[in-house]
Amino acid sequence: MRHITHFVGGKPWPHGTTRHGEVYDPATGRVAGQVDFASPSDVDAVVAAAESAARSWREEPLSRRTKVMFAFRQLVDARRDEIAAVVTAEHGKVLADAAGEVQRGLEVVEYACGIPALLQGRFSENVSTGVDSYSLRQPLGVVAVVSPFNFPVMVPLWFVPIAIACGNAVVLKPSEKDPSAATMLAEWFAEAGLPDGVLNVVHGDKQTVDALLDHKGVKAVSFVGSTPVARYVYERGTQAGKRVQALGGAKNHMVVLPDADLDAAADAAVSAGFGSAGERCMAISVVVAVDPVGDALVERIAQRIQGIRTGDGRRTGCDMGPLVTGAHRDRVTSYVDGGVTAGATAVVDGRGVQPDGDPGGFWLGPTLFDHVTPDMALYTDEIFGPVLSVVRAASYDEALALVNRNEYGNGTAIFTNDGGAARRFQHEVEVGMVGVNVPIPVPMAFFSFGGWKSSLFGDSHAHGADGVHFFTRGKVVTARWLPHSGMSLGFPS
User: Of 113, 166, 281, 318, which residue is the catalytic one?
Assistant: First the structure.
């Protein structure tokens, strides 16, 4: 079994630990490794190393930071197949999907390579007689990133490159379910010339995260995960005086209007619903079919599901891999059981899937329910698995109201050939990321990723300009370079 430990101060953690977790190969169901869990005292040592590194790193010229970022970008680009294979081995997603998340992470690294322009302040000359005023953005110090299991490369790269480029030191706590990719990224940053201690990886569980949330040396926390945990992280972190951005769960709706291209809509629903076995915060989990297209759309989706090959993501020809753990597979399966009991129509039942892989893997095939109603757990809960629900709506207005009533507001999409309807939808829908004939509207790196309502706690989205703003704080300088002009007790104006 592989042993996975922390990466601190530019090298593997040399100290022992009394707590561990098991890392599985989801395609076989067997334990593949053991990961160390950090104690609060371990976290103290890691933050101390980061604080020491932050003091010198913030003084490095922007050109030096940029040079490191470009070198890191080259390493990831050249070794993308290597890290994608690690993702597939621990998460289970197929290799092509793992390679896709590496690419999207690289786009944020490339954005961070432009940090000299992104950190430019503003200057105003002669705001008063002989007085100039200008603004700066400066690093916070030590920041923590707590990332989820479903994107072990992409989500850390949403935050870490921007935080580092802005002059901060980072403590990254990846998911204990698939921790190896984070350590690999830290090793490659060190190889790219990042000074020791600027990026540290600490593994662990809730005890580890709580220690980061409470630590006075940690100035900000970026988190991605489920809504209950995001709310907890936000409340505990802000109570400790930290800046917090906590991205939570989702229940993403795809509205299909009667004039839509139903073949394109069906392709999109299947791709967005079952890619990565539905373990995406931007997955489409609800299709809202506006009368009278429901029957025709469900038939097309069901036909396409029959062609999906579920199996080991390392095998050629597999489209969808296993779920990440046995416990999670069982949880998702319980929703399928409950949907049948609640009276939804199981058009395609993935519980009996015959996978192209080891029988012991954490398998559940693509599942399609029709005639789901808003009172069913299939609809209300974030299932985070390969379960697609179709809800019928009588009109555009009813479909819009359904989306807006939902507690989540991460992503949504509308499929239509009516430009007026699309424009109205993007204006009226209460969701942070909107796709028009695009099922997974994940913004490019130079925009920002973030939902509304219970999908985001905090006021800063991830990456883009919001990311730069989150990992820096503003300072305004007012300067006079003239002979002393005497005392004045009046208010400066």
Answer: 281
